[in-house]
UniProtKB/TrEMBL annotation:
EC annotation from Swiss-Prot or TrEMBL: 1.4.3.16
Pathway: Cofactor biosynthesis; NAD(+) biosynthesis; iminoaspartate from L-aspartate (oxidase route): step 1/1
Entry protein name: L-aspartate oxidase
Catalytic activity line of the entry: L-aspartate + O2 = iminosuccinate + H2O2
Biological processes, Gene Ontology terms: 'de novo' NAD+ biosynthetic process from L-aspartate
Subcellular location: Cytoplasm
The keyword Repeat is annotated on this UniProt entry: no
Amino acid sequence: GSRVSLVTKKKLFDSATGKAQGGIACVTDESDSFEAHVRDTVVSGAGLCNEKMVEKMVVEGPERIRELISLGVEFTKKKNSDSEFELALEGGHGKRRILHSGDITGNEIERVLIKNIEKNKNITVYKYHTAIDLILDKDRICRGVYVFDNENNNTEIFEAKVTVLTCGGAGKTYLYTSNPDVATGDAVAMAYRAGANIANMEFVQFHPTCLYNIAAKSFLISETVRGEGAVLKLRDGGSFVEKYSPQKELAPRDIVARAIDSELKSRGEKFVYLDITAKNKAFLVKRFPNIYAKCLEYGIDISKDMIPVVPAAHFFCGGVMIDENGRTSIENLYAAGETACSGVHGANRLASNSLLEGVVYADRVYKDSLQFLEKEYSEVDAKPIDNTKSPVNKSAAFVRKKEEEVRRLTWDYLGISRSNERLLKAKKKIDILKVEIEQYFKEVPFTVDGIELRNMMFIAEMIVRSAIQRKESRGLHFNTDYPFLLPDVKDTVINIR
């Protein structure tokens, strides 16, 4: 085996994977079929899915699931069965096909993967190391990455024959998000600055139901709660989703999120309610132990009380454009998972397809990248970046203030519902912020917060550039000035060059 360096800016379990409650979508039941899973995915993707990529994901899914199980992942089994899995249903799926581990599936998968990483002698984990930028040689081949050591405050060069970007999404770019604090779009921003093609960044999925509580930063109330019969209600107790879709609570996420957003905007409210009190306590404690306990911490007994919820930035369908082997437009640079835009999600991701995409495309990247490890490359001409700049007094306060500005701007102008006027305002504001932030980045010694702020600003720029280019409303991108679909379907591809 080759030597692998795993660079992570916090600890290994600081990721969105661990927060994935619902599960992993996969065809395992005789009554289900690959065709049905592909069809559900493509319908959700609103005409923009790359069907070849979807097929690869769906067909290779069962093999990857078997691999996860052999590594030690324990999926919930049916009552009184040792071999049959309990399958959950989520919005947009025509069949029960979601494998889950209670209501903490991502956590279970992550636990097992970390255990296996720690046992592997070929993998060195560099915790508290933050990637700054990619290293390209004169032929524009990626040769590694500049890294900031958070604890020693110095920069290092990580040289590599193969570089793989798997840094998740960028939910933290928005004011309200279901994502952990680390989700600042670092990999997409680095690839963009290096000149890679970036696709479909206008398609940001908002999870319809994040717990509304100032203390509860980013706690998700899973889709599966609605799958078990929860109803969305207004302050007066009236339901409203049926006005927007005959599928009501089980409509695709974008429709449910837009329904909530529209009600909140027209009523000037901050949240709506999710009501699952029709189910008894014993059922809820068994089916949703994590959600039940977490809500109780905030004084909400979900068997008696309605849950205040708000939509929150959840998943980026766009990212670094890749082919079926995870290759980006830069040689020797790969991307997978939420960082990548593989085309499997189209304009709107189907619930529980993200963990599936992650495992299938990680496997494809691994197999394809082996060929580069045989090759010899010249010395890379890169020196560590000098970090002995004179510290400027404004550092921490400046970063906090600008981060707040970026996140407020994305929420106000690049949210669930957009308009030409809002997009142009956002672009103006981002252009000004960019000058200030890049100037700061040059003058002030590196900090993790500073690196993240710069990346979030670039993510905001990519969202606005992509959104302005799309003169229609499709999937997650809804522009009130173009409330129609164009007959010609195409990806929005941008780069910095």
